[in-house]
């Protein structure tokens, strides 16, 4: 079939399905179809089927929307056909916009997740705010009730009595005597008084006698009554999961000098607490901690093929093939820089040094991730230098264009910072406006402008990028000082908090506003392989229960950045000499 005839046929097929193609999108479709000269119609139908499954902002398709599906189809083709060489680092790398991530809700009756259908408005109603908290809590509760220490055994009564910690709803505490385990969201319903809320009721909590979970290597457990018990009869559920260990010789030591476990306990976080109901209807907490962290493989198996990450679902054969290709991608490297101030001459000179350094290496990085802020001054109502900032982006494009190897072989991902220009300072933040970036885009066609947070799928690996000064805010909002027994590093406390809460920003909405209908874009469930937290604090790297987490530091202030190798999940913290 001739090119003109195929062009008309493609347009007609898309119109029948309710889509309109822009010129660049149509060219991408024809380029894809030309790969299959003997099965052009089948390839076109498969492409349209794939586009229908995507979460699209509009029925008018541009090149980016079409190319995303084409890249996925080429990946699948290579996974099925080992002789195919169509997958490269460029096609294997998929950037996922936060606003197209599918939303799932948990049905506690059927014990399944179902996908939300229909459009999600930016400006929600009051019910949407309540749904935000309810969805967060139910996500944590379904994970908690699957844990072997908190699930109720069906038959073995002795196991249930000695080793199982049954969760009691807050409403059911009335009339109960003795110690009980409850779970809920920490909230401040009255000034200066904190409550624990679940879906049934709320109860005031007293943390004055709360004690922390700590590990010591002995053969016994020392509990608050100072009685020794056989370790075979006692299992500290929260502690084992917090440390990521499971050993018969690990013990639990309850130290009254320390009030909480690792992590930042702030409003809106979900905790599990053991205590006793008092006569004044206050729940006196004796021990508390975050819900146990669930292994990624267990979560994926439980979800039965649902795409929480937004990168598409792969079959077992495709996953196996792409995993092999991922291990072979030893030359692929991501370079991450945060706080790249384009209006600061010193910062631009340092950036030129970094680009020159990677231009001269044998294998140039496959991806450069530049995170905001892109201006040394906040882009608020007092900021009027938008035309100057636009020219700074153009200068950056010229700087990249002058490095031929990087220009040809690397891609550039731009993620806005908390003080960059945008419609509002809420999460998730939309991509930088085209007015600022269009000149750079003309010079660097490989540039991608995404949202904050942003997700990347590299072959089978899931990576989350988030630019926010989170550590400072979490420490300010922390209700009590974090424990120093397991770690004194604030970054490790931060990683423990966001992973156990399965959320990038578990702060109160008054501290960090979130679009109610898009709170799911900040979830970390199932836990991704890698989390990159762009923060102005000191650069750090930390592996926590198999999850690689790191902060590249502030490039403009400390001249620090990070290099990440996805095939080995290794992080190289780097910096320029002053």
Automatic annotation (TrEMBL):
A molecular-function term among this protein's GO annotations: DNA binding
InterPro entries documented for this protein: DNA_pol_a/d/e_bsu, DNA_pol_e_bsu_N, POLE2
The name this protein goes by in its record: DNA polymerase epsilon subunit
GO biological process: DNA-templated DNA replication; error-prone translesion synthesis
Keywords attached to this entry: DNA replication, DNA-binding, Nucleus
Primary localisation category: nucleus
Location(s) in or outside the cell: Nucleus
UniProt family annotation: Belongs to the DNA polymerase epsilon subunit B family.
Domain of life from the UniProt record: Eukaryota
Gene Ontology CC terms: epsilon DNA polymerase complex
Domain DNA polymerase epsilon subunit B N-terminal span(s) in chain numbering: 4-70
One family name in Pfam for this protein: Dpoe2NT
Residue ranges constituting the DNA polymerase alpha/delta/epsilon subunit B domain according to the UniProt record: 334-539
The protein's role, per its UniProt record: Participates in DNA repair and in chromosomal DNA replication.
